[in-house]
From TrEMBL:
UniProt-listed InterPro entries: AAA+_ATPase (IPR003593), ABC_transporter-like_ATP-bd (IPR003439), ABC_transporter-like_CS (IPR017871), ABC_transpr_LolD-like (IPR015854), MacB-like_ATP-bd (IPR017911), P-loop_NTPase (IPR027417)
GO MF: ATP binding; hydrolase activity
Top EC class, one word: hydrolase
PANTHER family named among the record's database cross-references: ABC TRANSPORTER ABCH.1 (PTHR24220:SF86), IMPORT ATP-BINDING PROTEIN (PTHR24220)
SUPFAM superfamilies in alphabetical order: P-loop containing nucleoside triphosphate hydrolases
Gene3D superfamilies assigned to the protein according to its UniProt record, in alphabetical order: P-loop containing nucleotide triphosphate hydrolases
Enzyme Commission number(s) of this protein: 3.6.3.-
Keywords of the record: ATP-binding, Hydrolase, Nucleotide-binding, Transport
Transport recorded as keyword: yes
Domain annotation ABC transporter: ranges: 2-229
Name of the gene encoding the protein in the UniProt record: yknY_1
Domain of life: Bacteria
Protein name per Swiss-Prot or TrEMBL: ABC transporter ATP-binding protein YknY
Amino acid sequence: MITLQNIRKVYRNGPLEVEALSSINLTIERGEFVAIMGSSGSGKSTLMNIIGCLDVPTSGKYILDGEEVQALDEGKLSSVRNRKIGFVFQSFNLLGRQTVLHNVELPLMYGGVSGAKRTQRALELLDKVGLGGRVKHKPTELSGGQKQRVAIARALTMDAPILLADEPTGNLDSKSSEDIMALFKGIHEEGTTIILVTHEPDIAEYAERVLWFGDGKLIKETRRGSAAT
């Protein structure tokens, strides 16, 4: 599903260069549940942005579901991102003045889905994440865990085969975190490829595979029930 070959990312500020990623070689198969761990500045968020087609590498090759990302123009890149990747962020990124239902409908609206079908799909997803009774509420009327459930429902609207989650439990208490991770587990069991950035070891334990980053490099990999490699 995802292949990274000798990926390097350099940020330039005048004469200064900061290498955020160095020679990353990585393959993620369809249907995997992968966690990415590392301290602040380790390169994990930069990697997530590249995988999510929100940024491009300085050098190397990124192949997403058979397509070489660097060869795509901005229009095609945006289309690939919308069709193949759902995003969940730590800060939820919900529209505070809009209802829960409208927040989930937005990607469908941009995708050209008609009003009736859009509403039906959004209602189905909100019911799936346990918020069927909150569709008319606004995000300000929800708990942190409920807001993240809305964000997950929104990420699932286009049936994207990949779900990227950047610190999805970072703003939640332990009980809400457990609930959200149980939801991710169920989504994974339905066949979605999940890639999760976290700094919390107990959250990473939900994944089948953990990639450890440090100083822009992949330094260690562990799989559930096996030793580090």
